[in-house]
User: What shape does this take?
Amino acid sequence: MTTENNESVSLKFSEGIAVFKKDGKYGYLGKDRNELIEPKFENITIFKNGVGFVKTDGLWGVVDKNMDYKVVPTYDTLKQSSYGSFIVSKNKDKGVLSRVGKLVINCHYEDILYGGELMYGASYKGVWGYLDVYGNVAIPFKYEQVCAFSHGVATVKLDGKWGLIDSEGIAHGKFDKRDPTDTSMTPKNVYIGTKIVTAIPKKGISFGEVTDGFRIKYPDGYESWTPYDVFVKNYRSLSDGEIELVG
Assistant: This one.
């Protein structure tokens, strides 16, 4: 849509906010078409998870719905992880910002992925390891490839072979040459299931901050901690103390 003032307006609203363009620059509009932030950016994204990404002078930052900066435009690239933190790069080196925009892992790494269960997989000088949410080395850098943790274990590649390690870096079972990430020969079936767990309210550390959450006990005896907002999206109550995993 183009207005009489030669403004290009996105018809797609995301979280009640739309992108518009004027004189080659981008800004945000509210549902009543009021200007939330003036068109001053080289590029911007639609809102998702309560934030929008904005680019100025070649650098990316983050604004919230009040149009305040959570992250001042400082970084060459910027993406949000599934848990709300931001993986950023500066001069090709990557680091991590917390959900509130605080630098928690300095930009020293060749690559970073959210490793699940409050850890990040990181690559340094061609080898991979894991960092905790404060940037401390949790599992030494010695792997050729790493994957995210799930239920206390992660798949890693070492000396050309794949295997499982726990959060302390201890191997579970033997390593072999089968690539678990290759699904080309795997039958494409669709599954759905549930698992009943016990959940106990408990505060924990998420991206360097103390936050509400739940300690979850699984039928096989495994325990983990999950932030409150993640928990309520994935579980529903069956009875006192028992929770069913959705989907």
